UniProtKB/TrEMBL annotation:
Name of the gene this protein is made from: rsbRA_2
STAS domain span: 163-277
Name of this protein: RsbT co-antagonist protein RsbRA
InterPro entries: Bact_StressResp_Reg (IPR051932), RsbRD_N_dom (IPR025751), STAS_dom (IPR002645), STAS_dom_sf (IPR036513)
Leader peptide range in chain numbering: none
Domain of life: Bacteria
Length: 294
């Protein structure tokens, strides 16, 4: 390999000064506050830094500055694991990036302190270190960003599932209270939860309560109709409750027709559902009067 593809000064520093680089790097990270939140222990941080230095020395000896090369794969995998862990632990992008970029100052200091190094060699070494650490830092941030997006998507799905519970009101009668905006993704979750509950409970009536839905536009109405149609295919009729006056006016203005029984309150919808399944609710005194005297 040419000196350019395998910088001898960097190799020498990493192999001979690792014991000096490690404490300087970890000290700088601690000064930046990485341990302040208590999300990572000092021993874990030291282990991560030591392993990075070992893998970096091995990779740069074998492949120079070619970060995408196979010898760098173990190092890239380690940095990816660290990035995913940081994303799950709630570290910020700057906190995660500083883990890699904080290695620059100790390396620059080691280059400056190297004996018998001419200015041209030192300058080239600084440029090589900058290019190398920047490449590793960008890799770290790409994985971190992707991991954070995955965490956010998973959390959104979990919140959506928690916010769309299916409640059994009576034998054969289910209620699905909706809160918040009803978009395409959430409609799918609503539909899945409702259909599974219809099958599990052998329900005849499903009440979809939209009291907690702030607005109902054409798109929201389409999502509701999809849910109603899916429930009907499973053998359950639907009743929509929670139609407030302002929502009714908006739907009339937009020309939206739900083509399904709707009621102003959940109580009214429940009364209709009970009649459909042949049940009624009456005061206890009335029931006692109707009982024959033995």
């Amino acid at each position: 390999m040419t000196p350019r593809s395998q910088p001898p000064l960097i190799v020498k520093i990493l192999s001979e000064q690792a014991s000096t680089l490690l404490p300087k790097w970890t000290t700088l990270l601690k000064q930046n506050g990485i341990l302040a939140t208590g999300r990572i222990k000092e021993t874990e941080l030291a282990t991560q830094c030591r392993t990075v230095l070992d893998l970096l020395a091995t990779a740069i000896t074998a492949a120079g500055l070619d970060v995408p090369a196979p010898p760098y794969q173990p190092l890239r995998d380690l940095l990816a694991d660290i990035s995913r862990s940081r994303a799950i632990q709630g570290f910020s992008p700057s906190e995660t990036a500083s883990f890699v970029f904080s290695l620059k100052p100790p390396l620059f200091e080691a280059i400056d302190a190297a004996k018998g190094t001419d200015d041209a060699t030192a300058l080239r070494a600084v440029q090589d270190v900058t290019r190398l650490i920047d490449a590793l830092g960008l890799h770290t941030m790409e994985v971190f960003q992707k991991s954070r997006e995955e965490v956010i998507v998973r959390q959104q799905r979990e919140i959506a599932e928690l916010s769309t519970p299916v409640v059994k009101l009576w034998e054969g009668v289910l209620a699905l209270p909706l809160i918040g905006t009803l978009d395409s993704q959430r409609t799918q979750i609503v539909m899945e939860n409702l259909l599974e509950s219809i099958v599990a409970e052998r329900a005849e009536i499903a009440i979809i309560d939209i009291t907690g839905v702030p607005t109902v536009d054409t798109l929201t109405a389409q999502h509701l109709l999809k849910t109603v149609s899916a429930a009907r295919l499973m053998g359950a009729d639907c009743i929509i409750s929670g139609i407030r006056p302002q929502i009714a006016q908006t739907m009339v203005h937009l020309g939206v027709e739900l083509n399904v029984v709707s009621k102003a309150t959940l109580a009214d919808a429940f009364a209709v559902a009970l009649r459909r399944v042949g049940r009624t609710v009456a005061p206890l005194k009335t029931v006692h009067r109707q009982q024959p005297v033995g």
